[in-house]
């Protein structure tokens, strides 16, 4: 099985194909990272607003 | 509410897109002329088609904004253009890689399809600076809508102009005269195109949900902490307080 797998060789110009798909993956990951940052900001704001609501209830 | 059915849509996107790429890698045969390198087509072309359709969708939303005056349509148009710009950047980079691999150059200036896409991309790259340069929110939204409609009309015109041009060398994947794509390649291509379209819709809904949540949080903060407006100057449209 291992010997068979090592026999599989990609064509010489496969690097360009891999690079193109990696660019797409990188764009997606950057987008996900930006969305994650936004999500954590929303969470912080919600915690803050919850505190504000609690303070109002006490007062 | 933009978040409904987002989970199902995300799952459908992952399945379709990864299925499409798997078909492109293992099911579609290698191109007789370009060999393995032609596999870039299954990524590059669907991305280009979806990006251009996204620009036109942005124009349609902008028309709705001017008709109704609702900031929701302005936001929809903004998000559509924003996502198309991201895909457009991907198209230019993957196109450059493909050009380098098949023509030996990163960019070819006498190739109408490449240059016309770059023109469309650069045109839309001015959309956000245009928004940012206008302080008044209503004016910003109206001017941006007019821009989106004009630029959106330019997209199909540009596409037609390139098609009608005599001296083009860019490969035509659906050219009927020269045979077009082989059936198995066509299946893989359509699945990739569907996957890319689903990805666009999913990201559009994600972005809309995010903007809507942000607007709801701002409204809640105003209600809880008094009427202080902490909004920064931004190119992104804001929704009316819910």
Structural notes for this entry:
In chain A, 86% of the residues lie in helices and 0% in strands. Chain A has 59 residues and is an all-alpha fold. The N and C termini of chain A lie far apart (72 Å). The relative contact order of chain A is 0.06. Chain B is built from 7 helices and no strands. The relative contact order of chain B is 0.17. The model of chain B has no long low-confidence stretch (mean pLDDT 86). The A-B interface holds A 10-11, 13-14, 16-17, 19-21, 23-24, 27, 31, 35, 38-39, 42, 45-46, 49, 52-53, 56 and B 21, 35-37, 39-40, 43-44, 47, 86, 89-90, 93-94, 97-98, 100-101, 203, 206, 210, 213-214, 217, 220-221, 224-225.
Low-confidence stretches of chain A: 1-6
Q: What is the CA–CA distance across the termini of chain B?
A: 11 Å
The major pleated sheet of chain A works out as: none
Summed up, the helix count of chain B is 7
Which class best fits the helix and strand makeup of chain A? Answer: mainly alpha
In short:
Helices cover 86% and strands 0% of the residues of chain A.
Keywords:
heterodimer; A: 59 residues; mainly alpha; 2 helices; 0% strand; disordered N terminus; B: 242 residues
Q: What is the element layout, followed by pairings?
A:
The complex is a heterodimer of chains A (59) and B (242).
Chain A: H1 2-7, H2 14-58
Chain B: H1 6-27, H2 41-68, H3 71-103, H4 112-125, H5 127-132, H6 137-164, H7 183-225
